[in-house]
């Protein structure tokens, strides 16, 4: 099924890139081939915001092509019938309204091939782009059609570079990116065809054979899966594969005479020297080195120093061993002369070689001729050198220097390197106090893993000091802590500090940060902020955030932390008017529990407070407010109050006398539209009827 979203690249983008000779044309083509096919019911540039047209059931699609070409559909048919079925299926797909546009990629590849040919002028840009496509493109229909033609042309033109790249790609086959549309049998045929071409070339033109073979060998890299290859083992062990139908040889034989066309390899050292410059696989390079050592010893004694330097700089272990062997074999390249010959840095680079012999040579050279290695180089060496002797060299250089000479910055970096960690810790203790660090040093040590974290904690403990809370905050904010489990220890340390050390502003912001919110909520529930440190207006703002509302109401509901006068009558009454039942219920409960009748008056007088309460029962107020006011008056009635559920639940003692319930205030409630107010009026009337002295009231 095709993708329905907007495509990163369109075919017309590739055509424009080709027209302007974009240096990244091949990269774009490879990226285009990697995209899923667009829907076949619309053009490639269809607006993804618009609905897709319905696909005509009669349309011949890519899925139908796959079915037509499937093995089960072609079985038991003659070769002519199979060919006719394939041609018919492809013709139908190409005639469809919107076939997958990647099927047109073969045309762009053909244009590159034409430009890259001698007839097209041997365009270097086209050749470079074509080789990149051959090496990296995902193989599937469209691309495959183009590359097959390029291969046929390369054979016909004796184009070693393009032949070599394609022979390698066929040989490694499905180990490279494919769509699965090219069968394993096709790859098997093509790798055998490539070897057949090489074999026939070796028989007819043996002087050309090594040059073509090297162009194949240069493409196998360290990641190439060599099991099951065919062209490669034929090149270096053909005599062992005569009559074989498959090969599992992954290294060149010890006896190089087993290679194909042994005598052809002895004609000139140039192909093998070229392979040392271009090869990417240690086994391939070993084949080249041993061929040179066996057949061209005199050439190896007169190699150009600049060429040798290029070889020594390549990051391949087999080349490093070859480079060192050439140095040791030449009296003119004694270690004492390497600096003046421009090989000093090349040899020092071998300290990080994966080849043990090369690394040992570099260690000996550095010990005798490089007393002033750069600190950054030594640090990298200690951290990344595969060879233990090279790592020990770095440790020894740092060990010989005073802490101040190394510097605090570098010592902190060293703690994070296992080979240097113990030494760095000792020098930090000997040369510095923990408070001399900067925040970034502390963060680096805390994040240096177990050793660094344990060290910095013990270092402060030994100095009877503690890191500033701001440093702990920096650690907590580090992107290196990717989840709450990694962040938990540092947040536990912060919890032990006072809010003013941490920063009240930071705590408030951290509550809204997903990385810290759960921790800060625990802090607040534990009473970290209270009294002057607790901003009541900030809490009231949190009430408006549904996710934090329960926390905010919980904190506001603790009079020991937030005085009722700071919560404020006005705000509580406003909350009691809210449609959200959680807010209204909190306001009602808080007012009942913590506000005396006199608190409802602006001047704090009891009489004015009672008047305000009765005013809140008037029809002009919201229903929730009127219900609350009636409940409050009931709870504080001297006789009815103790009997109410609210008073019993909240432990409220009545604070009003009977004079607070005059008939003039209660009478309107008997006929109120709200049942809760009518019930309250009836309950009060039963208690106050005798005091009111209105004999006609029961009959009104």
What would your notes on this structure say?
The structure is a single chain. The protein has 700 residues and is an all-alpha fold. It has a domain at 575-700. The protein is built from 42 helices and no strands. The radius of gyration is 43 Å and the shape is elongated. The model has no long low-confidence stretch (mean pLDDT 93).
Dominant shape: elongated
Total of helices? 42
The share of residues in extended strands comes to under 5%
Task: Tell me about the largest β-sheet.
Answer: none
What radius of gyration results from the CA coordinates?
Answer: 43 Å
Structural class: mainly alpha
State the share of residues found in helices, binned by percent: 55-70%
Number of strands: 0
Mean of residue pLDDT?
93
Spatial gap, N to C terminus: 81 Å
Short description:
By secondary structure, the protein is mostly helical.
Notable traits:
single chain, 700 residues, mainly alpha, 42 helices, 59% helix, elongated
Reconstruct the topology from this structure:
Layout (H helix, E strand, L loop, with lengths): L10 H9 L5 H10 L27 H8 L1 H4 L4 H17 L9 H12 L7 H13 L6 H15 L2 H13 L11 H21 L4 H9 L13 H7 L24 H4 L4 H9 L3 H14 L1 H4 L4 H9 L3 H13 L14 H6 L6 H14 L5 H10 L3 H12 L3 H4 L1 H8 L2 H14 L7 H8 L3 H13 L6 H9 L6 H12 L3 H4 L1 H8 L5 H9 L10 H8 L5 H8 L7 H4 L1 H8 L4 H14 L11 H10 L7 H13 L9 H6 L12 H4 L8 H18 L8
């Amino acid at each position: 099924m095709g993708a329905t979203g907007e495509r990163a690249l369109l075919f017309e983008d590739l055509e424009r890139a080709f027209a302007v000779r974009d240096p990244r044309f091949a990269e774009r083509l490879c990226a285009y081939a990697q995209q899923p096919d667009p829907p076949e019911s619309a053009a490639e540039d269809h607006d993804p915001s618009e609905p897709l047209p319905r696909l005509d059931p009669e349309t011949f699609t890519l899925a139908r092509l796959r079915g037509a070409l499937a093995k089960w559909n072609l079985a038991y048919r003659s070769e002519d019938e199979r060919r006719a079925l394939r041609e018919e299926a492809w013709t139908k797909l190409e005639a469809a309204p919107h076939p997958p546009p990647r099927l047109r990629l073969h045309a762009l590849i053909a244009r590159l091939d034409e430009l890259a040919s001698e007839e097209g002028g041997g365009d270097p840009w086209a050749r470079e782009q074509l080789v990149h496509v051959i090496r990296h493109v995902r193989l599937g229909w469209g691309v495959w059609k183009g590359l097959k033609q390029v291969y046929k042309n390369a054979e016909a033109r004796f184009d070693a570079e393009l032949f070599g790249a394609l022979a390698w790609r066929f040989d490694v086959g499905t180990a490279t990116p494919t769509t699965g549309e090219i069968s394993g049998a096709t790859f098997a045929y093509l790798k055998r065809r490539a070897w057949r071409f090489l074999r026939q070339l070796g028989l007819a033109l043996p002087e050309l054979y090594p040059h073509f073979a090297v162009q194949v060998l240069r493409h196998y890299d360290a990641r190439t899966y060599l099991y099951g290859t065919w062209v490669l083992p034929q090149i270096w062990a053909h005599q062992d594969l005569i009559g074989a139908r498959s090969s599992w040889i992954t290294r060149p034989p010890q006896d190089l005479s087993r290679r194909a066309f042994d005598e052809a390899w002895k004609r000139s050292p140039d192909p093998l020297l070229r392979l040392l410059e271009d090869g990417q696989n240690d086994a391939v390079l070993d084949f080249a080195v041993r061929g040179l050592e066996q057949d061209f010893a005199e050439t190896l004694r007169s190699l150009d120093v600049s060429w040798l330097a290029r070889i020594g700089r390549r990051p391949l272990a087999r080349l490093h061993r070859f480079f060192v062997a050439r140095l040791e074999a030449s009296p003119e390249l004694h270690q004492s002369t390497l600096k003046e010959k421009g090989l000093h840095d090349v040899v020092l680079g071998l300290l990080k070689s994966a080849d043990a012999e090369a690394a040992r040579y570099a260690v000996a050279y550095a010990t005798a001729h490089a007393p002033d290695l750069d600190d950054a180089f030594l640090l990298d060496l200690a951290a990344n050198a595969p060879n233990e002797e090279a790592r020990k060299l770095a440790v020894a250089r740092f060990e010989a220097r005073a802490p101040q000479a190394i510097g605090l910055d570098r010592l902190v970096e060293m703690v994070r390197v296992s080979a240097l960690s113990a030494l760095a810790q000792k020098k930090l203790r000997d040369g510095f106090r923990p408070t001399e660090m900067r925040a970034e040093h502390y963060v680096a040590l805390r994040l240096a893993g177990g050793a660094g974290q344990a060290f910095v904690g013990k270092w402060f403990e030994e100095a009877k000091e503690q890191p500033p809370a701001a440093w702990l905050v920096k650690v907590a904010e580090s992107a290196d802590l990717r989840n709450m489990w990694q962040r938990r220890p540092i947040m536990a340390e912060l919890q032990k500090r006072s809010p003013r050390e941490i920063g009240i502003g930071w705590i408030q912001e951290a509550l809204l940060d997903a990385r810290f919110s759960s921790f800060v909520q625990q802090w607040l529930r534990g009473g970290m902020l209270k009294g002057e440190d607790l901003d009541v207006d900030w809490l009231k703002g949190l009430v408006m955030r549904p996710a934090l509302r329960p926390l905010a109401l919980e904190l506001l509901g603790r009079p020991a932390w937030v005085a009722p006068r700071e919560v404020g009558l006005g705000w509580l009454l406003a909350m009691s008017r809210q449609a959200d039942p959680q807010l209204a219920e909190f306001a009602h409960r808080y007012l009942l529990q913590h506000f005396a009748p006199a608190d409802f008056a602006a001047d704090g007088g009891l009489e004015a407070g009672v008047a305000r309460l009765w005013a809140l029962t008037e029809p002009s107020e919201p229903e929730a407010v009127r219900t609350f006011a009636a409940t409050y008056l009931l709870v504080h009635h001297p006789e009815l109050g103790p009997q109410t559920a609210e008073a019993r639940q909240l432990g409220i003692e009545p604070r009003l006398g009977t004079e607070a319930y005059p008939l003039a205030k209660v009478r309107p409630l008997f006929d109120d539209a709200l049942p809760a107010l009518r019930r309250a009026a009836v309950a009060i009337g039963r208690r106050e009827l005798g005091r009111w002295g209105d004999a006609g009231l029961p009959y009104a």
